[in-house]
Amino acid sequence: MRISTLNLFAVTAAMSALLAACGGSQPPIGATGAMAPAAHTSHIGSWMVPAAKSEDLLYVGGGGFAHGYLHVYSYRSGKLVGNISGLVSPSGECVDTAGDLWVVTNFPDEAIEYAHGGTTPIATLSVPGSNAYGCAVDPTTGDLAVTNTNGVSIFQDAQGTPTTYVDWAVPDYCSYDNKGNLFVVVGHDQLTELPEGSSGFNIIRVDIPGPYSTVQWDGRGLAVGGDAFASYPVKVYQVTISGSRGKAIKTVTLSTKDDRANDAQFWVQGHTVVQPTNRGNEVGIWAYPSGGMPARWIRNFGPIRYDTLAVAISPSQ
């Protein structure tokens, strides 16, 4: 649960970070793979099956102060292939064009980078302000954007000290498009844009109902939506942007047999969308943009019930 200022849930499911966060290879819906979790089935400690580096990986992060984690699954087979422990309140995830994963934590507020299939951080950046929340990588420059209560902190080439831009309201999740324009959800009901090369945000008027928290470039346009405070089932909207206007051209309904769709960060990967549910121990995978009932579930979360806070997919290179 997001603390203090926002007081809302967050989720991200590791799927490739197209946009830097968007794009990437995509297995068929419901496909199964031959990759076995070897002798490792534990959700405790840090470990990774060696063959995981050649897989598309789904990172599912969450927990709080005592049990922060990243569980790593083969996206094709749904089998547990790794675990990364020692994180405190991971709240967001994103992926760069090399397939490396960035996870945002608070307490302390940091952005931590892991190589695809790795368990040891290869970079750690201190995020100014408090409540570091979501992130996105600019596919045109490699810059890393991290949302927090101060605004949006952008690390040039994903290193060093960031430049912080103040947004219209407290930011939720963010995403770059394929041209380096940064889109940010603020206040749980407003879409803003920091155009490439600009120093100020523009408000984008979008014809979709709030509240919502997530935005992601899906390779063709923006996917916007995802919120537990909205009526069930949760919806994701395909949105096209023209100037200061956003138009929903498709409504993607994430149906379930009961009220199980969740809020927070979904992840679009090719022709699927991944979304954790409000039961905490499961992640659903739906066809995108057709929606409907989920094609499959991933539920192997171990003996402890967690609040899922983040998901992302990292494609094999």
Short description:
By secondary structure, the protein is an all-beta fold.
Describe the protein in words.
It is a single chain. Helices cover 1% and strands 41% of the residues. It has 317 residues and is an all-beta fold. The strands form 6 sheets. It has an 8-stranded mixed sheet. A 4-stranded antiparallel sheet has the order 5-6-7-8. A 4-stranded antiparallel sheet has the order 9-10-11-12. It is globular. The N terminus is likely disordered.
Q: What structural class do the secondary elements suggest?
A: mainly beta
Q: Beta-strand percentage?
A: 35-45%
What is the element string, with H for helices and E for strands? HEEEEEEEEEEEEEEEEEEEEEEEEE
How many H/I helical runs? 1
Distance between the termini: 33 Å
Neighbour order of strands in the largest sheet: 13-14-15-16-20-19-18-17
Helices, strands, pairings?
Blueprint: H1 18-21, E1 47-48, E2 57-62, E3 69-74, E4 80-85, E5 90-95, E6 101-105, E7 110-114, E8 121-126, E9 135-137, E10 144-148, E11 151-155, E12 163-165, E13 171-176, E14 182-186, E15 190-194, E16 202-206, E17 214-217, E18 222-225, E19 234-242, E20 245-254, E21 267-269, E22 272-276, E23 283-287, E24 296-298, E25 308-314
Parallel strand pairs: 16-20
Antiparallel strand pairs: 1-4, 2-25, 3-4, 5-6, 6-7, 7-8, 9-10, 10-11, 11-12, 13-14, 14-15, 15-16, 17-18, 18-19, 19-20, 21-22, 22-23, 23-24
